[in-house]
Structure formats: C-alpha cells, structure tokens
Design goal:
CATH superfamily: Voltage-dependent anion channel
Order of helices and strands: HHHHHHHHHHHHHH
Largest sheet: none
Strand content: under 5%
Number of strands: 0
Radius of gyration: 21 Å
Number of domains: 1
CATH topology: Glycosyltransferase
Distance between the termini: 31 Å
CATH class: Mainly Alpha
CATH architecture: Alpha/alpha barrel
Structural class: mainly alpha
Shape: globular
Number of helices: 14
Helix content: over 70%
C-alpha cells in the first residue's frame, strides 16, 4: 500500500508541475523550435547531416510539447493568456508560435524531405499568422493604460517581421520542385513586403530605446538579438524568391527591387552583429550579470543560425561564391550557442523534476542534517 501511495503522490506532483508549466508558460518559448530548426537547416545546407538529423527530432518533440502546454494554458488559464496578449513586453512572444510552425515546416522539407507534412504546417502557420498578428496589434492598441517606450519596447517586437517572412521561406522552399499558383506567388511577394514594412516601422523605436534612453544591463536582454535575426530571415526570404525568379512569373517585374532590398537587409544584419556582441559582453563581463538560463536565450540562438542560412542562400541567389565562406565558420558559433542553451534548458527541467518528485519532508530532513 505504501509504494502505491508514493507513486500516486509522485504522479500528482508531476501533474501539478505540468499545470504550473502551462500556467506560467513564456509566450515566446516557441523560439526553441525556431532556433533548433534553423541551426538544423544550416547544417544540412553545409552537408553536416549528422548534426541536422537529430535536431529535427528535437525540434518536433519540442514543438509537440509546447503545443500541448499552450493548449492546456488556453483551456485551464485563459485569463493568463489574455493578460499576456495585452502586455507590451510578453505579447510579442506569441509570434514565435507562427515562426516556430513555419521554421519547423522548412526544416521538415530540407532535413526530413517530407513536403506533405510541411505543406500542412504552411497552412497552419498562415492561419496562426492572421490570428496572432491582428490579435496582438489590436490588444496593444486598445489598451487603456500603456507603458512608456522605455519599458514597453524590446527586440521581441521584431518577431512580427520574423513570423511574416517565415511564411515566405516555407512556401518558397516547398516550391523548389513545382511552382505554386499565381495567387500563392503573389501572396508570398506581398508577405515579403509586409515583413519589410514591419521591420522598418519597429526598428527606429528600438534604436531610439537603445541610444537615447538609459539602459541598464538587465534591460539589454537576449531578444535584442532579434534586431539582427529579423533582417537575416528577410535576407533568406528575399534570396529564396530570387532563386524562384525563373519559375514564378509574378516576380518578373520585381527582380531589381528584390535584389536591392535583399542585399540591403543582409548588410543591415551584418552591421548589427559587432554591436550586439559588444553589448552582450558589456552585460555579462563588465556588469557581471550572472549567466543563467532563461527562455529568452533562444531568441539569441535563432539569429545566429538564421544569419548562417541567409548568407549561404544569398551567395547562391546573387551568384557570389565568396560569401559562402562566412557560413562555414559562423555555423560553428550557432551550434555552440545552441548546445549551451539546450544544456541550460535540460538542467532547468531536470532540477524542476527532481524537486517535484522529491518525497514530502525530504527537503526538511536534508536541512536538519545540514
């Protein structure tokens, strides 16, 4: 009887842990799927299949777990979801659901060679984009009490642009074999322009926040790396469209525009990297902030992987082979960042499971012995 009671208590503690995880789920946690997917894609394009294939499994497992927790949160804690949606700091994280879905779809095509599944993910991502995009901007617009620019804006806002371009990237990847309908071609072109518009509308506010508002070390959080990641995925989207120019008739009149804007955004992404490295070193080496795992770190891993992939595809789209040397070395940084962040995640989850499964009174007994 005693073992059965112990098992029941352990199961109850685990169920409570799952419920708490769903209740407190960070809206931007799908950045884990985004980062894992893009690092996997980069390694596939560079021929490192032994790295890419396991990451496909991890991305799918992470996606299913996060979808389950999100659905539980919607059912059990809808009030928390509504509050997050009108929170200027946390609400942009919902865009990672869209981007995570589409990046996973692209990974499924490139690494797993399963276009049928990826096609379903594209339609799902498109539907999620419509819901999240207008729910977010409506919620933050009609909110009666709004934060100041200093406390309300950060790099996570640019995930709106990332999510938009991820729709283009997935459809463009799916169309490598046969071109989509002219309606879908037109939609991808329009989405590319919307993604550009969102970046150009939001980045001045972030740049103003960084340069004219006092910035503490805690204010410079990992999502600011999305400043670079958003233009990196725009580079990738533009490059894919350029590579489809011979088979997508809708693009015919826009090729000069696509060439110029794609190159512009790659240059912008490259410009951001030294500044973001300097600010990261300032936070953790100069200001001595503790380097502790937090979910927002996936927002730093994703841009590193995306810059690798975007640069490689740009070199092919513009037929500039010398650019392909950059991804060969940059992918190492992306993989190391992913490994370090994933180790932090595993440590966090393991610690919470150990705490949840610890027999009642064990902690007090340990303290008394100490």
């Amino acid at each position: 009887m005693q073992p059965m009671r112990s098992e029941f208590r352990a199961a109850r503690r685990v169920s409570l842990l799952v419920a708490h995880a769903a209740r407190d789920l960070f809206p931007g946690y799908f950045a884990l799927v985004m980062a894992t997917g893009v690092v996997s894609i980069a390694n596939t394009l560079l021929g490192h299949h032994w790295i890419a294939v396991p990451l496909l499994g991890i991305a799918w497992l992470s996606y299913l777990v996060l979808c389950t927790l999100t659905l539980l949160r919607l059912v059990l804690f809808p009030g928390h979801v509504v509050r997050d949606l009108s929170n200027h700091q946390r609400a942009p994280g919902f865009f990672t659901v869209v981007a995570g879905t589409c990046v996973l779809g692209t990974q499924t095509v490139v690494v797993g060679n399963a276009p049928g599944i990826a096609d379903v993910l594209w339609y799902l991502g498109l539907g999620l984009w419509c819901v999240v995009m207008y729910a977010f901007f409506t919620a933050v617009t009609i909110r009666s009490r709004k934060p100041t620019l200093a406390s309300g804006i950060n790099g996570a806002w640019l995930i709106a642009a990332v999510a938009t371009q991820s729709v283009v990237v997935l459809k463009g990847t799916l169309a490598a074999g046969a071109p989509p309908s002219e309606v879908e071609q037109f939609l991808c072109l329009a989405f590319f322009m919307i993604g550009c518009m969102l970046y150009l509308a939001i980045i001045p506010l972030i740049f103003y926040r960084l340069t004219f508002v006092p910035l503490s070390s805690r204010d410079f959080s990992p999502p600011y790396w999305i400043n670079m990641g958003a233009v990196a995925i725009t580079t990738l989207a533009g490059s894919i469209l350029l590579m489809r120019r011979d088979s997508w008739p809708v693009l015919a009149g826009f090729i000069p525009y696509l060439r110029g804007f794609t190159m512009f955004f790659w240059a912008a992404a490259t410009w951001w990297i030294p500044l973001l490295i300097a600010l990261t070193l300032w936070r953790y080496l100069v200001k001595r902030d503790p380097l502790i795992y937090e979910p927002t770190f996936w927002g730093m891993v994703f841009p590193l992987g995306m810059y690798t992939t975007g640069t490689l595809q740009l070199s092919r789209a513009l037929e500039l082979p010398f650019l392909a040397e950059i991804p060969r070395y940059f992918v190492i940084v992306a993989v190391l960042a992913w490994v370090g962040t994933f180790a932090g995640l595993v440590g966090r989850v393991a610690g919470e499971l150990v705490t949840a499964l610890r027999p009642a009174g064990a902690e007090d007994h340990t303290r008394r012995r100490a």
